Amino acid sequence: MGVLRDKARVVNADPNEGDGKLRIRDTDFAFQGNFGLMVEPSENTRFGLRYLTKTKIDWKDKPRFGGLGPKWQYSAGFSYASNVATEATRSIELPISAQYKYGLGLNYQMRKDLQLGAAAEFLYEGNLPVKQEEFFGVDQVGGKYQNVSISIFSVYGKWTF
Questions:
Q1: What phi and psi, each to the nearest 5 degrees, are found at residue 87?
Q2: pLDDT, the chain, mean
């Protein structure tokens, strides 16, 4: 039987705002492994990492947030994709490889029905050698893309009615 009961506390930087919290509860039947690590370098800073083994669970409850302050939400993330393409399968038209992605986000609740936000993402792939045996009738094309990276910036608004 799978039981999901999770609570988290967020210490706000402004002591006048109060602490934030997250709560979720649900049950279903499945087997799963859960491994985690929490690092607290100072009283006001915590970093956590959690790994859940793959399983199929049908959770119906939705997370409930509270006390995070009425206006601002911040987010950050990192991902690594290792099996995108190999040197043998990489095309010269779309040179992709292992990808490191870093992201930051900011959301501002202007009114109950209006949110504004901004995000930035940086994707780094490094140096990418390419080689194709036949390319539009030419016998061989080869070369190297150096320090491949992409920066993505976005600004958005969400109006609910």
A1: -60, -35
A2: 80
